[in-house]
């Protein structure tokens, strides 16, 4: 079977950063980095766009506040019952309901946004993943055609990868 | 999140692999002490269940309720457990936003405590009902009676606040666990590997996952922060929105929030001292972490003591004779013992925390934290019962003491909480693996490791 990619296993962050920088410099675009913890040094090289999760939070929050006020107002109007001489639509107490539903939907939609963008839950295998990557090693996977993979192997080895293998 | 990086320990810093090894080791097969503890708490839960069954069979007459005191030990314990929950969110969310690095070692335990405390609190409004099987009437849903919940009632606000809090704090706990469960999965074998694989959602530590996870975690913290402040404010409004003397005060919301964080930090210390020893986590949960918790206790204790003082001052200075009589009665009436227990445990004993020698002595801290737990239960008892016992009309004045079925249920609630916590530490990492590693210097060929 032809290899689709090549993975380098690194024990040191600075080695991994060097390899990633070189791969980016040589024009590799299909790269995946596995690391036991998020590191800003790696993020800086990958230079990704801002995560769209914040938009999900905003949409969830706005949907929540609208739903909370709508629910309290609509149900009060559906069965108009004067309580304590207050108006049927009493906005100040409904703020509490609107606030709680803002947080509730804001949080749940934020999680949904993360799952959607991070493509979780993930049922299949992740090419190049190794269980050491949740422990103490960093993995860099480069994908591409046969000639690109040869170049990637060289870069990973030169940067100090402890192990380089095809995936 | 790299800004969180700060020296984690006074002991030699562990390597990434040691963090995984040490924390996953806490999930080893149960020890005899764990089984013994579990057996005891299950017995306690069973006794609580028996007491509730007895109450359901014979009605609320088996409690000590004496007109007009129909809010007693159940509502006291409800507020107590909601309060306990608060420090978990403070430590996991608010301290994250404040970039307090020391939280990494203790936040998982505090967050789990939050979820189980809200689960326990949520039982009490139902236990408190005469016809518990109709508890769902408070929920706003279309029904054949054609009526909806009264959204002007603080009790309905409470339903929204507590259920939102339970959902969001459980989501926060679960999502925070995902990378750690993946680490456990990678060190497990057989059926455990499969189960942890499902719970970890197939998490693989990829750059794409970390990027979106980091944003999500930050926004969840940002949402949980106002939520935690709102929840105990809403709980306080269960009282403050009424015109009962001793309840009708604008100070109630901040007073309750400070008290909640105070009691929660006390409970975190009560839990972490034995947990650290039992799971051999001395390298991760260090004395300096306890000292930080003790400082939080001290700060919130002084706020609570100030609130007590303000309440008494306003009762005297406000010129309302009913309010003044209520507070005089609170301090020197038939419930003097409860009030002075509250003041001693919450305002005076925590003053010992001004001394560093005490803040860094775990035995002393453990004992003080027990006093805080007792004091904060009594605070709610004092607010609820003494106020109801001494309302406007002298012919209404009454005296209430909880009877054994109530005390059995309160005891059962502690066992119920402990049961969930014991199960949690048996199956999930009680110290956050990824975040502890994040706070350590990374392995570098050119430097520090």
Task: Please explain how this structure is put together.
The complex is a heterodimer of chains A (167) and B (449). Chain A has two domains: 85 residues, Alpha-Beta Plaits (2-Layer Sandwich); 65 residues, no CATH class. Chain A contains five helices and four strands. Chain A has a four-stranded antiparallel beta sheet, with helices on one face. Chain B has a single domain, classed as Formate dehydrogenase/DMSO reductase fold. The N terminus of chain B is likely disordered.
Provide a quick synopsis of the model.
Chain A is an alpha+beta fold and 167 residues long.
In terms of topology, how is this protein built?
The complex is a heterodimer of chains A (167) and B (449).
Chain A: E1 5-10, H1 13-25, E2 31-34, H2 40-46, H3 53-78, H4 91-117, E3 138-143, H5 146-159, E4 163-166
Antiparallel strand pairs in A: 1-3, 1-4, 2-3
Helix pairs in contact in A: 1-2, 1-5, 3-4
Chain B: H1 16-24, H2 32-58, H3 73-97, H4 103-121, H5 123-127, H6 154-187, H7 190-199, H8 207-240, H9 252-278, H10 287-317, H11 321-332, H12 336-348, H13 356-359, H14 362-389, H15 404-427, H16 433-438
Helix pairs in contact in B: 2-15, 3-4, 3-8, 3-9, 3-14, 4-6, 4-9, 4-15, 6-7, 6-8, 8-9, 9-10, 9-14, 10-11, 11-12, 12-14
Shape of chain B: globular
Radius of gyration of chain B in whole Å, from Cα? Answer: 23 Å
Total of DSSP H or I helical runs spanning 4+ residues of chain B: 16
- Measured distance between first and last alpha carbons of chain A: 10 Å
| Major beta sheet summary of chain A | 4 strands, antiparallel
